[in-house]
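Support case: zinc ion complex. Customer-provided input:
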Amino acid sequence: MVAVGVLWAGLLGTVAPSVAAAQGPASLTGYEVRERGRVSVVATPGDATLAESLLMAAVAQDSFPGLPRPRQRVQIFLAPDTRTFRSWNGTGAPEWGAALAYPGLGRIVMQGRLAPSTAGDPVRVLRHELAHLALHELLGDLPPRWFDEGYATLVAGEEQGDGILTVNLALALRGLPRLSELDELFVDGEGRAHAAYALSVRAVEEIARGDPERGLSLFFGYWKETGSFDRGLRRAYGETSEALEARWRSRTRVRYGALAMLTDATLGSVVLLLLLGPLWWQRRVRDRERMERLRRADAEQERREQEQARQEQESLLAELLAELPGTGGSPADGGEDAPRDRPQDASGRKQNE
Ligand SMILES: [Zn+2]
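Agent response - structure generated as follows:
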């Protein structure tokens, strides 16, 4: 990707399209050109308002953290629709792409006012692309992809919630990748690319943290001078790339770790619920049925015991009554107490034997 490197905008990106296609419109007929300072915007009259506000924003904030003020002229092509955007960018542009930067050409191609909502805030998207151009103006193709995207995303303030969520999922499901593995994630589908952007932003932030006062400026100077990321890092911050990587990994774990565990726990719970839920329910239903059977059996047993006790009592009474001569009364007439009462009855008379 040397002089004609192609960079995807914002939370985008996959295969670099052919640069020959990145020429913008074949003719400027039907397009308006606005120019201010080093920036010009080519757009249809329909995109005039957007073109004007993008031009204003680009000129109003034309410096980038750690970099000298850019001098390269920049052409911005606003595609009136997605079909035109694709035709200007050639094959290989992902469906979800919103803008492309061509540092070798000093050119940015982005979608106009009819861009899908997923394309993001156009001012931020443009700032992201301009950051790519500014970085390449100083360093050429020295930066690896992760640094390029991390820097542009950070500068444009594009860190997004879903990026963080994806990082958490990536952490929870795969473990944290190495810095050298980040570049592959950009071309590994939209989900992985989101994680790659968020992790790259963290890495660039971690580098800048090495010098709270000057941030990245010394490092950029040494990087250009030595042509080496590692040597630039050592001279600017006195730190090896291995140490940087270790710091990045541990801080990223701390920052996202709790959320990752939560994500992990939540995922785990869902999986457990899906696997064990039906079993638990069956068990619950079975338990309830068993309890009901036990309750019915208990009630039946009790009823039988009461019945048996009643029968035993009746037969005992019948036997006792049968032994008493001359009494044919019912058990309710006095029963076994009757003989003892006789000597002390109300008349006080002794019974004659
Ligand atoms: Zn980018």
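The two ends are 137 Å apart (CA to CA).

Case will auto-close in a few days if no follow-up is received.
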